[in-house]
Amino acid sequence: MLHRNVQAQFVDESRGATAADTQPDMPQKSLLRFLTCGSVDDGKSTLIGRLLFDTKLIFEDQLAALERDSRRFGTTGKEVDLALLVDGLEAEREQGITIDVAYRFFATAKRKFIVADTPGHEQYTRNMATGASTADLAVILVDARQGILPQTRRHAFIASLLGIRHVVLAVNKIDLVGYSREKFDAISAEFGRFAANLGFSTLKPIPLSARYGDNVSARTDKLAWYDGPTLIEHLETIEVEEERADLPFRLPVQYVSRPNLDFRGFAGTIASGTVSVGDEVVVAKSGLSAKVARLLTPDGEVEAAREGEAVTVVLDSEIEVSRGNMLVAPQARPHVADQFAANLVWFDAQPLAPGRSYILRTETDQTNATVTKLDYVVDIGSFAKAPADKLEMNEIGLSHVTTQWPIAFDPFGENRTTGSFILIDRVTNRTVAAGMIDSALGRATNVHWQAVDVNKAARSALKSQDPAVLWFTGLSGSGKSTIANLLEKKLHAAGRHTYLLDGDNVRHGLNRDLGFSDADRVENIRRVGEVAKLMVDAGLIVIVSFISPFRADRKLARDMFEGREFIEVFVDTPIDECIRRDPKGLYAKALKGEISNFTGLDSPYEVPVSPEIHVETVGLSPEEAVDRLIEKIDQRQSSVGFADGAGI
Q1: Running DSSP on this structure, what letter comes out for residue 337?
Q2: Cys-Cys crosslink for 375: which of 332, 334, 398, 576, Cβ 3.0 to 4.6 Å?
Q3: Would you say the C-alpha torsion 168, 172, 178, 179 has a positive or negative sign?
Q4: What's the rounded Cα separation, in Å, for the pair 120 and 357?
Q5: Contact 567, 561 (CB under 8 A)
Q6: pLDDT-derived band of residue 17, with 50, 70 and 90 as boundaries?
Q7: 3-state helix/strand/coil string of 417-479
Q8: Which CATH superfamily hosts domain 6-237?
Q9: How many C-beta atoms lie closer than 10 Å to residue 516's C-beta?
Q10: Domain segments of the chain: what residues?
Q11: CA-to-CA distance for 114 and 251, rounded, in angstroms?
């Protein structure tokens, strides 16, 4: 869902560990993916070290190195510290904590296992989500001395959100409470009460001591009162439903393979379902369909493939499919929408505030996105849903998300791969949230893209012009509207097909419900950009005249268009000259304090860095500016093109 950052962590990184799936010495054994989680110092790394030790997966040289490391970094006195088998980072060893996610493979006579050791500290909650994203079972550890802690509840809730349906409550360090049955029963009962509504199919409490191995893989007389399975016995026998192969076919396209003119294939890993040569498939976003002509895998050409397999699909006709799109079953298509509700696990120290723009990444797709509304935040203590206007670090809440481009998805509860995403801060490039899509919103629920035969190229050819949007930006009073109006008049007289979208005029109709808050300004630009995009698709030359003071908002608009369709026109007039002109009397009111957040005075205007056209109006009449604009447009129409930052 991939790039090697935390996106890869949430959506795809754990798959790197699955190379063990194909171990040649154990081809017939089933595979169980599970994670260990819980609060800090509950013994997660020690438990995994014990599992590796008991299953004889530690070589003599590794054991010797472990003994040396235990003397330097260990926390168990003179004994070997098994946690150091997993805590590989120097910082982890020095602090005695887990920071990163460590994946380990081990096996018994009955089953193969891939286990993710995830950190317990709150600031590394994102890494816990990494391990949980592809796990079938969660081993939630609890220190028998401490009992249920807030992080225990948080990890249980995240495991539930991420689709894990099987849980082991490992009451660890039972030796430190005298192997007390009463303590174990009390912790089990408390966990059972708060987890009752989390949707787990199985919940098995097991008392154990990871340090000494009690009840991990072998029984002990010290726990004679416990008549259930050991941890390894339970992991060997738990039935985990293999349902993804029964889901509708989904192939997120990761790469378009075109080694020569005679071959065009669409590569990716099948997220769910099966596909065979001869099957009809549909491109999720366009609705175009074709039949599968060939299926290629790393082992050669095959007749059929299923969930989890990496394939290259060759179709029987040349239809447009690009990275980020999805090949799907025609009778069970995913949602394609730009609005949906999603549960967010917030990672960043900077709280989520609705209205801010982020980058959203799915399995293979990417688009700009805005969290438009926060429905509620979940109280980890009681799981009550409380109204909120922001989401703090490590909080979990249901939000409404709007994307710049529609994305193809399934609800997370139906498909964990195609229903998940991450949010990335546009400035810092930090991953700030993991998201699980709950449902499409409103009109988008059952709306799919319908393939059409008359396209943009056909409409443009009929008008004998290249469609484009000229985006005028500048301070209030800079002359944008005057120049834009005069430009359209001259283009119209010359037989060009145009339309003018003026900032003030649009607020009387399309955007009459919007104010001037940060969120409303983003939405103002988004709506106008969408309208302009439709008009460009109709083959028109669209003139947009908006202050649009922020570079991020102008980039949001630019990203809606293809290639050279977007032409930024910076109408550059000094603020003093704008105040002197003041055609609408707005500067006078703003200077008296009657208007707040006025651009250029108490709200910033971010000057374009490299506009396609730079119009300096001082000493230049509107007619002269328009004549030079038309000259540039004519150059573009004859394929000469615009030079970035060209002045007129």
Answers
A1: E
A2: 398
A3: positive
A4: 30
A5: no
A6: very low
A7: CCCEEEEEECCCCCEEEEEEEEEECHHHCCCCCCCCCCCHHHHHHHHCCCCEEEEEECCCCCC
A8: P-loop containing nucleotide triphosphate hydrolases (3.40.50.300)
A9: 14
A10: 6-237, 249-328, 335-444, 456-647
A11: 24
296, 301, 420, 468 from 631: Cα distances, Å: 52, 56, 48, 15
452 CB burial (10 A radius; 0-12, 13-18, 19+): exposed
d(CA 647, CA 231): 73
pLDDT tens digits, one per residue of 456-499: 889 999 998 889 999 999 999 999 999 999 999 998 998 989 99
Could you report the per-residue pLDDT of 371-388, keeping only the tens digit for each? 988 889 887 767 788 888
User: Is 456-647 the same fold as 335-444?
Assistant: no
Confidence of residue 224 (pLDDT cuts 50, 70, 90): very high
Rounded to two decimals, the pTM is: 0.59
Confidence category of residue 643, pLDDT binned at 50, 70, 90: very low
Q: Does domain 249-328 have CATH number 2.40.30.10?
A: yes
What does the pLDDT read at residue 117? Answer: 75
- Other C-beta atoms within 10 Å of 256: how many? 15
In which residue are the tokens 């500048």 written?
474
**Does the active-site annotation cover 476?**
no
Instruction: Read off the tokens for 198.
Output: 């989390």
Counting beta carbons within 10 angstroms of the beta carbon of residue 493, is it exposed (0 to 12), middle (13 to 18) or buried (19 or more)? exposed
Cα 95 from chain centre: 31
- Buried-state track 291-330, b at ≥16 Cβ within 10 A, e below 16: ebebbbeeeeeeeebebebebbbbbeeeeebeebbbbbbe
Catalytic residue among 548, 596, 610, 638: 548
Hey, is 64 helix, strand or coil?
helix
3-state SS record for 127-159: HHHHHHCCCCEEEEEEECCCCCCHHHHHHHHHH
CB 326 within 8 A of CB 317: no
Q: Is 581 helix (H, G, I), strand (E, B) or coil?
A: helix
User: What secondary structure does DSSP assign to 475-504, as a single string?
Assistant: -TTSSHHHHHHHHHHHHHHTT--EEEEEHH
Q: Dihedral of the CA atoms 509, 515, 516, 519 (nearest 10)?
A: -100
Backbone φ/ψ region at 38: left (φ over 0), alpha (ψ -120 to 50), beta: left
Q: Tokens 């003026």 appear where?
A: 502
Structural fold of domain 335-444: Elongation Factor Tu (Ef-tu); domain 3 (2.40.30)
Helix (H, G, I), strand (E, B) or coil at 276: strand
Q: What is the pLDDT of residues 589-615, one digit of tens each?
A: 989 888 887 888 888 888 998 888 888
Within a 13 Å sphere around the CA of 250, how many CA atoms are in the beta-carbon half? 27
